[in-house]
Every structure is written in structure tokens, then in C-alpha cells.
Amino acid sequence: QVQLQESGPGQLRPSQTLSLTCTVTGAPVNHGGYYWSWIRQHPGKGLEWIGYIYYSGSTSYNPSLKSRVIISVDTSKNQFSLKLNTVAAADTAVYFCARTNYGAGKYYYYFDYWGHGTLVTVSS
Amino acid sequence: SSELTQDPTVSVTLGQTVRITCQGDSLRSYYGSWYQVKPGQAPILLIYGKNTRPSGIPDRFSGSTSENTASLTITGAQAEDEADYYCNSRDNSGNHLVFGGGTKLTVL
Fold first, then answer.
1. Is A1 exposed, middle or buried (0-12, 13-18, 19+ CB in 10 A)?
2. pLDDT of B80 strictly over 80
3. Average pLDDT, chain A
4. Per CB distance under 8 Å, which residues of A are interface residues toward B?
5. Angle at A123 between CA B44 and CA A22, to 5 degrees
6. CB contact under 8 A, A37 and B48
7. How many CB atoms lie within 10 A of CB B93?
8. The pLDDT value given to residue B92
9. Are B96 and A60 inside 8 Å of each other by CB?
10. Tens digit of pLDDT for each residue in A77-100?
11. Yes or no, beta carbons of A109 and B45 under 8 Å apart
């Protein structure tokens, strides 16, 4: 049974750095068949893909967040992490981590396992 | 605004069939996936690829794609299907992933 669990501070001040970790159980993050994503949902709004990482360290980021985001992986702890710097109130959201699977030829990607999400509030 | 466009709200009478659509140029090249989101819960994967349901997803959920439009069909909508639905695919560049804006489904 694959499970993901987000952890990290729930409250931040503007200009601080958001740091979240996703601990994965039931599947190795160094499995070559998957990517590992961060996704967020602003209060009352839609889902927004932040980015993903491959076990090798290769990453892809949402262009709108690319300048502020770093996703990293720690295969020894079976975790991957999100850093988002210079946060503002607009970064208040529920942050999800998710395993990202893909089909042959990468004609489709899909998020098959999700964490429960963690609310991060940015407020002065 | 998202590169994948969804109708913000859709309603269906209990037991009837409803189609939720997702439009975008990238869907001409890539399949979409569909997720159900209820308040306070993690999203649930419903459909991926051409029309594949993960284990445990009822067969009243099905997917299809035509040209630039992906569709999620619920055949015989149940009260518990009232939720938000999101599509996801690659963006127009093919280098990133993107979600549609979401559709709120009301079951009457």
C-alpha cells in the first residue's frame, strides 16, 4: 500500500521560505517508473501543479513558480521535499504531494497516490 | 487562466448521465486524467490514459477524447458523486503538467 505524508510548518510570515517534506511508504522513490510531484490548492480554488522530480534529480517546474521553487529528493530517507522562497499571502494553500505515473511514450501522466495535504498559511 | 478549460458548474439529476468536458490544444497530442475532489479530502484519480479506471473506481465513470476535448462521463450519477472534478494533462509546450480550472458537479 503506497502512502504519502506531507510535513512541515503550517504558518509562515511573508518573505520566508516554505519547506515541506513528503515521506513515502510502500514504494521506493528511486523506482525509475515514477516522478514525484507537489500540487497545491488555494482556498476555494483549483488545483495547481507546482513541479515534479525524478529519482535521478531531474526536475520540471510550473513556469509561473519556477523562479521560487526547488524540489529535491532524498532516496536514503525515501522522501522528497519542496522549497518555495519569498512566500506571500497568495501562497496560502493546501499543499499535496503525489506519486506521478505515466504511460508508454509519456502520452499521459497521472497522479495515482496522494498525501492528505497540509495547509500552509502565510500571514503577517 | 489554465490551458485546459472546464465549465465551472454542471448539474445532473440523480440517476441520469452527465458529461464533464476539458478543452485544450495539448489534448490533441496527449491524453488527460480525471480527479474527484471533495472538501477536506485528497483528490481521487478516476480515469487516466485512453479510458482506464484504477481499481476501486466504479464503472459508472468513463473517459473519452475527441480532437481537443477530453470528457468524463458519469452514467447514472449518484448523490455521492457531488464534488469538484479536475482534468490534467501536459501543457501546450509538452514540458509541464497542468490542471483544468475544475467543474463543480451538483446532483439534483
1. exposed
2. yes
3. 95
4. 37, 39, 41, 46-49, 52, 60-63, 96, 100-101, 103, 107-112, 114-117
5. 35
6. no
7. 10
8. 86
9. yes
10. 999 999 999 999 999 999 999 999
11. no
